[in-house]
Amino acid sequence: MNNDIFPCLWYDGDARQSAEFYCSVFGGEITADTPVVMNIDLFGQRIMLLNGGPQFKKNPAISFMVICETEDEVQKYWDELLEGGMALMELGSYSWSSKYGWVQDKYGVTWQLFLGEKISDQRIVPTLMFIHQNNGKAKEAMELYTKTFPNSNIGNILEYGAGSEGHGQTEPSENVQHGHFVIDQYSLFCMDNSYDHQFDFNEGISLVVMTDDQSQTDHYWNALTGDGGRESMCGWLKDKYGLSWQIVPKRLIQLMNDPDQERAYQVVQAMMKMQKIIIQDLEDAYHS
Fold first, then answer.
1. Cα gap 18→23, rounded to integer Å
2. CA separation for the pair 127, 61 (Å, rounded)
3. Residues with Cβ < 8 Å from 284, sequence gap 6 or more?
4. What is the structure's pLDDT at 119?
5. What is the pLDDT of residues 11-48, one digit of tens each?
6. Contact by Cβ (8 Å): 220, 182
7. Which of 26, 85, 111, 133 gives 105 a disulfide partner, CB atoms 3.0 to 4.6 angstroms apart?
8. Percent helix, strand, coil in the chain (nearest 5)?
9. Where is coiled-coil annotated (predicted)?
10. CATH number for the segment(s) 8-67+108-192
């Protein structure tokens, strides 16, 4: 499992309460605690919580599949996550799992709780929903992502097949009902959905990729912004499907956490002016 790739959840001031909540539900711990950024560890996996402001709301275009080993575990998470939240698919027995439910918690994060076989040590798997103009592009996206990252592969793909329905809509038979893929040892799921949902990919939930050097940073940046993607600020980008990524050199974090506050501040100021992060320019700011 790779902890250099992890999800980031956007908050408007309530990241800390949310971090404490998830740690209590899943038995995790807070590993970084600043006014802007919180990191938590759940089942050995890193999740970042960012107090970014009111601009973006989290939504079910990216949900989190939690693979559970017992019915009791599914029930516990369901009961705790449902408090103040809402059920998107009622907890019950389905063709794909004898105990499954989809819940949106009080912080706007959606969880699919699933009794089933583990695919790896990774217990929480981000699940991407390809809807609206992206519907039918899940396979294409898996190919782009697995081509971009090393140690990647496409796993099992279940197509909808003839006459199948998703949310009461008839889905094209070749569309992906459930797909599994791995980018640099980090597992994700994806699905196509033709329902006209009131949400889509946005910055409310993004994927962070920590890079070792400039060439890796450039490679991911170019591959993901190419062919219709968009550069944003401070290492953020949107790929051609509108999925948000943060391409973050590890050196940036080291410099921002430097005990010399003045130097760290210079680095942050330099970073704020960048789209893609240029490590040398950060070093220059640090030494200025």
1. 9
2. 8
3. 270
4. 84
5. 999 999 999 999 999 999 999 999 999 999 999 999 99
6. no
7. 85
8. 25, 35, 35
9. none
10. 3.30.720.100
Identify the residue whose tokens are 């992060």.
277
The beta strand positions in the chain, using DSSP E, are 5-11, 29-33, 37-42, 45-51, 62-68, 86-94, 97-104, 110-115, 124-130, 153-159, 165-166, 169-170, 176-183, 186-192, 205-211, 230-231, 236-238, 244-249
pLDDT for residue 2 is more than 80 = no
pLDDT of the residue at 164: 59
pLDDT for residue 16: 97
- The pLDDT, as a whole number, for residue 204 is 98
What are the phi and psi torsion angles at 256 (to 5°)? -70, -25
Ranges of CATH 3.30.720.100 domains, the chain? 8-67+108-192
Assess contact for 193 and 167: CB atoms under 8 A: yes
- Residues facing 130 on adjacent strands: 192
- In this prediction, residue 111 carries a pLDDT of 98
**Averaged pLDDT score across all residues of the chain:** 95
Say how many residues make up the chain: 288
Q: What H or E segment, with its residue span, contains residue 25?
A: helix 15-26
Cα(241)–Cα(139) distance, integer angstroms: 12
3-state DSSP of 111-138: EEEEECCCCCCCCEEEEEEECHHHCCCH
pLDDT score recorded for residue 171: 85
Tokens 């990241």 belong to residue: 15
> Edge-to-edge strand order for the sheet containing 29-33?
29-33, 37-42, 45-51, 5-11, 205-211, 244-249, 236-238, 230-231
Q: For the chain, give every residue range classified as CATH 3.10.180.10.
A: 212-287
CATH 3.40.50.300 fits domain 212-287: no
